[in-house]
Amino acid sequence: MIEAFHRIKRLPPYVFAEVNALKAAARARGEDVIDFGMGNPDMPTPPHIVQKLVETVQDPKTHRYSTSRGIPGLRRALSDYYERRFGVEIDPETEAIATLGSKEGLANLAQAITSPGDVVLAPNPCYPIHAFGFIIAGGAVRHMPAGAGEGDFRETFMEALHRGVAHSIPKPIAVILNFPQNPTAQCVDLDFYEEVVDFCLRHEIYILSDLAYAEIYFGETPPPSVLQVPKARDIAVEFTSLSKTYNMPGWRVGFAAGNKRLIAALARIKSYVDYGAFTPIQVAATAALNGPQECVDDIRRTYKERRDVLIDGLARAGWDAPSPEATMFAWAPVPEPWKEAGSLEFAKALLRDANVAVAPGSGFGEYGEGFVRLGLVENLQRTRQAVRGIRSFLAKPPSLPTLDIRKAV
Ligand SMILES: Cc1ncc(COP(=O)(O)O)c(C=O)c1O
Asked: Into how many domains does the chain fold?
């Protein structure tokens, strides 16, 4: 008999699989689907970065294996970014590493530090690798409810952290932080990080912070880094990424910075697994970090305009969703008539009847139920078109699958 593989059995189909299948079917029928489903930036990489790649790739020396930790210039560029943006000094030799996107870095760090059965505290809902990186690595995840909405977020989070430590046997090895958060768009301030660092230092728990949305913010105050807390580097490592900041999701460039022991562990694993990103990509990534930053302002402005059109439009359609302060996502409560049917049924109906794809909150974890995530990855015109579709969808009586069955019985 063929048994499912041990690790594969523990991985449910990826979050977007069901909605993606419906999306593909609708497109095959020739329908125009407006796709807020994935967090896949739709804008082009700024031309000066592409130009650097093109220039560099002409040199055959760059065609050889690269270095898995990242070329020194790229690690220096990251360290300059930390200095400039957060006032944090990072030693490019021992406290920084380039990764093939932050997702790869998170997954390989989980492999590096997890012993079988080790417990990790992960927020729920979350970006899937935050929990599943550790499941793949043979660990166990204790979920910290971190949905949006009720109560004071900081209080709820700290309570979940206290409970997670008090009731986990063995004691957790690490906690995952991700602010601004995917999918909820939750942001935090430096005080919050101070409290978490203090707690984790006392309990000897590593902090793995994912700051993928460091530069995608819409207010006056940019999101802080956990490494701004003076003693954070004793226990914390932080992941950043070029994917969203410079519209480079397909290039696969990210970083980890912070605690030397964690960086060395990740470097060791990576030295076995990969040879680093293609050198021209690393050179172009260096140009992105060291070069003009107006392109980042433009990217931010574009997401902000889309956010405003979407949130205002939804409000006019009778769907109140909080306006995200950061990230490229709106996290919207499932409208009342669909609450009971749940986020997946709502997402499926919206796709079927309005040709608008959203990601069901339940795909990000059980505490994501009751919400859907809308990615700001369609242009203004298509976002307006989607809002019109949503408005007429919500104006009609809902075709609720479960309630219909009950009526039939
Ligand atoms: C919170 C978060 N972390 C990491 C990633 C992946 O980033 P990268 O392209 O650097 O792997 C994403 C992508 O959507 C994300 O939302």
From this structure: 2
